Amino acid sequence: MKAATKTKAETLNKLILSDPLIQEFKKYEEALKQHPELLALEDEIKEDSQIILKKKALGELTEEEMKAYSKKKEYFENHPLIVNYLNLKSEVNDYLIQVETIINEELLKAID
């Protein structure tokens, strides 16, 4: 990679990381790390989901199991930290896709 290209990429990286949206996302990402119980609950829900699918396919799923799973999942999905984090994660993804699109369009213009 040419030095000029590397410098431009580093500048772009710094600009993106300084964007208020990215800063807010990073804040929530750090806050989430301070709540290992939520991260553990997320893993537990993923595992439970696999068990639920298997039991349902075998006709062995009880109503109590489904209610317990639904309650746990609802608690997680409605936790304010999770709601804000997931919303920001989606916004950041959209933002990065826009940046990538702009870069690709400018590259195509430069090639033509």
Topology:
Layout: H1 3-18, H2 20-33, H3 36-58, H4 63-78, H5 80-111
Helix pairs in contact: 2-5, 3-4
The coarse overall form would be elongated
Order of helices and strands: HHHHH
Count of alpha and pi helical runs: 5
Number of strands: 0
Helix- and strand-based class? mainly alpha
Strand content: under 5%
| Amino-to-carboxy terminus distance | 22 Å
Give the biggest beta sheet. Answer: none
User: In angstroms, what is the radius of gyration?
Assistant: 21 Å
Descriptive labels:
112 residues, mainly alpha, 5 helices, elongated
Give a concise summary.
With 112 residues, the protein is an all-alpha fold. It has helices spanning 3-18, 20-33, 36-58, 63-78, 80-111.
Task: Explain the overall architecture.
With 112 residues, the chain is mainly alpha-helical. 90% of the residues lie in helices and 0% in strands. The chain is built from 5 helices and no strands. The protein has helices spanning 3-18, 20-33, 36-58, 63-78, 80-111. α3 (36-58) packs antiparallel against α4. The longest helix is centred in the last third of the chain and has 32 residues, at 80-111. The mean pLDDT is 94.
